[in-house]
Amino acid sequence: MKEKIFFYYTNDLHSHFENWPQIVGYFKQEKTKREKNGQSYWVVDNGDHVDRFHPLTEGLMGKGNVQLLNEAGYHFANLGNNEGITLSREGLFELYDEAAFDVLCANLAFEKEPQPSWLQSSKVVKTVHGVKIGLIGLTAPFQAFYSLLGWEVESPFDTLERELPKLKNKTDVIVLLSHLGINDDEEIARRFKGIDVIIGGHTHHLFRHGEYINNTLLTAAGKYGTHLGEVFLEWDHTENRLTKKEAYAIPTENMAKDLDTAQSIKGIDYEAQKYLQEKITYLEHEQQIGWFQESQLMKELVQTLQDWTNAEIAMLNAGVLLDSLKEGEVCYADVHRICPHPMNPCKVELTGDELLEVIRASYTKEFTEIKLKGFGFRGEVIGRMVYTGLDIVTTVDQSGTERVKSVLYQGNPLEADKTYQVATADTFTFGRLLPEIAYSKKKKYYMPELLRDLLVETLKRT
To answer: Which residues make up the CATH 3.90.780.10 domain(s) of the chain?
Structure first.
């Protein structure tokens, strides 16, 4: 006898709920088919379902996302970095208290006992005909961030060395829920034997029909719910082995919406918005912003960043403020609307030469017009870099290009080999936007504060 087994999954939704009713509608249809045919199936989320850019997530600190997963009938969820490091220590500890599904993440633990009641390393389930399937979850090991929040995260490779043999001894099939990214998934498939399927995420890659490395099937469904994932397995009970493995990423755009889910999103969003209506301040005058200019509000925000981190210099891109604020009462919903990014303050050490290179690069048109996506940034373009603690003189040549003419710190030119403490957003410590900052050997992150927390403090003084 050959038994058919199904997994349905989402990854990296990032609170983009525009396709969520379609996803849930498809899952409901598939559940009906599988139950009618007496077939085993499981529904899984592979992390970053939560993203605090959305008011529904911000107002309820992720618990609205958990409610949506409950209502959709999910069986398992893994932790992504947006669940793990954009909430406070207590916020993550309590996030899944009401979850009706199992949370699997083997390389994360709270710094002290007791552990959250919902946190599990792995789970073994049985199909209707007795095939034993082991599921294990792994999340991206952002140790510098987790340690500041009171959590410990282990190397996923060390975790697999310890946990995989245990699962092999009591299962027929192993499925890894990996919020590590495509490179780590490929390395795991090369290094570890016995993992049948890796459901991937984190790097937003899309495998329309799955990819094989050795005997491991890799699959991932992109980002933002534009696709959902489906895995089909066939177990031969006579030969006692898997005889077929298939994976698909299916576009959701033209799927029929589940109307109950659409209505539920509206209701949860309404509840979330109520928490964001608390008054912060009253503005006597409109605060205008511009992505390619140094507005007064932006300058004051950068000064708050410098003060908050006790840095000598601060820099922040004007693109972090998405809209102006009108005269009158300002509430948290307004702040979230104009500064939705889950970005943290940080402080790095740069030499004078490195800082001068950063400043020169930040004034180029190519840099200010970058349409950045990811690294915590949820805006449109980077925009003009705004500085405090420095006097920067620029000139504009005949072609209209602005160039840095001189940079003074406390009235003196930057010293090439002297070390300066520079505050900025953690975004610039990732990737290669500003390599000198990304490769700085000394970085200090401030958590759980987000840039909008600093904006609140700025507005209270305005």
So the answer is: 278-461
